[in-house]
Amino acid sequence: MRNYQEEARLTALRQLKLLDTPASESFDRITRMASQIFGLPVAAVSLTDRDRQWFKSRVGIDHCSIPRDKAPCAQVAETTETLVIEDFATSPCYADSVLARAGTRFYAGAPLVTSDGYGLGALCVLGTEPRRVTRSEITALTDLAAMVMAQIELQHAFGRIDPVSGLATQTQFRDDLLDLARDHPGEQRLAVVVDLARDDELSRFRQVMGGARVDDMIREASLALQTALQPARAAYQVGAAQFAFLSPPNVEQDAYLTMVRSTFGTIRAASSVRFVTSVAIGVRPFALGDVSADDVLRGACSAAQDARREDGAIAIFSVANDTAHRRRYRLLQDFGAALEAEDQLRLVYQPRLDLATGRCTSVEALLRWRHPTLGDISPGEFIPIVERTSLARATTQWVLDAALDELAGWQRSGSPLNLSINISASNFGEADLVDRIRQGLLRRKLPPKRLEVELTESAIMDQPDRAMVMLRQLAEAGVCLAIDDFGTGQSSLAYLQRLPAHVIKIDQAFVRGLLSGESSDVMLVETMVDLAHKLNFRVVAEGIETNEAATLLAQIGCEEGQGFLFSRPLEAEELITWLAERATDRPDRTMAA
């Protein structure tokens, strides 16, 4: 029975994840109070392990533990009763103990007891002279021991231990790092974050296998990690499928990373989910006290995302990459405010010309953002960020409203210009997009044929079924459809034949190659134009910068062109001026900039 109770006590102790963790100010504060109340130089929060007394907190003690044999705190843990030894020299049990041989003559310890009645150890005070204790001193020691237990239970209950993995959480990681920085300032460490799976992998895994199987995966990974680290090292769960740990102090970085790669390769090979998840590992070198705990963890997580190039890869924290990540996050946060502001977003318009006549037939609306402090932000930077978030819908609506308002103004002034806008793959999930476009046209009394909607070939092929449904609905509504960046996607001829589009825009990468002198480049564009015509598409060439390219494209049979040869994207007022200037030119001028 005694052995069973002892094993249960040890299990309770280990579940609290206290052993071999860094010193903590929340415990040290109580230990100092005990020392001051008794006026003694030595005090400790002593936890009774299987064969040792380990000190979670200590005052006046240089070492971290002593043997459990003949340690008074072990008796306190076993009996859960307060123990006072007024003079070790006269104690038959402790006169020849390790403490007595070290010069200890007095001991008082109050038990640390869990709500289930298990004794974890003692809050104790020690002196080098025999002495008696008063009732008030014992009461104070007992109260302080209760405060220690309250702190232990608080840490365990409120966000300190993950209920699935049993590992300490991000909150505990932060506190432990603060404590380490206080005790070992300047010590060099590596923070390692192991990301078990991408968000989409985790979502699919949960969808197919269920939440319980995901929990099994987390438990399996946490057990493997704890086994690899050994009991003396702490592991933390810092995300849904992210674990963190610290290297030993002052390790040689390359050798340590080689060991980490080998260790996780072995863990990965034995994993039950190795074929449905991909592991990435990020490493953040730092010196204790020089970097905040939050920044250490954020940097390691950032490096883990950099490592996502290939399964099992390890990446070292990069200041340049981290700066880029932080800028992207800032832009994403600020773009939401830009949508609501009146002076940050605007549309510019790039003309599209008939190559045979030089007449401007339509313009493409392009979104621009002038950040209040960062200045002009390239659309190539902010649009890919926005497209992957819930802001994509609001952005498309902003562009649609602004473009249709402009088009309605042109119609009232008698301008025959048509207008094209761009939508992305993320918009395919908006079931009401076509209705919103229809309603926008109706409210402004605009004929649908005046509007052209552009989608890139790659966006269409990302979600071909959804794209086909939306394109058919738009075509039925009378809206013109264009496939942008043609030639860069993976569409098949069979799929192209089914698309209810009207225009194909040849990507500028092919147009630039026309003047390289390679006959194969010209032949490629000729083939693309011929194919488009056979599929009943009108062809627009993008990125035209020279008269020679425009002339060659017209000879090949390309109907329209767009590029800096004709005009850069123009503000609305500049476009009106540009159109007026072209109207006064000779009617045979077709290639003038």
From TrEMBL:
The domain of life is Bacteria
Q: Enumerate the Gene3D superfamilies for this protein.
A: 3.30.450.40, 3.30.70.270, EAL domain
Q: Which CDD domains match?
A: EAL (cd01948)
| An annotated Gene Ontology molecular function | cyclic-guanylate-specific phosphodiesterase activity
SMART domains listed in its UniProt record: EAL, GAF
> By its UniProt entry, which SUPFAM superfamilies does this protein fall under?
EAL domain-like, GAF domain-like, Nucleotide cyclase
- Check the record and name the Pfam families matching this protein: EAL, GAF
Q: What is this protein called?
A: EAL domain, c-di-GMP-specific phosphodiesterase class I (Or its enzymatically inactive variant)
Q: What is the lineage of its organism?
A: Bacteria, Pseudomonadati, Pseudomonadota, Alphaproteobacteria, Sphingomonadales
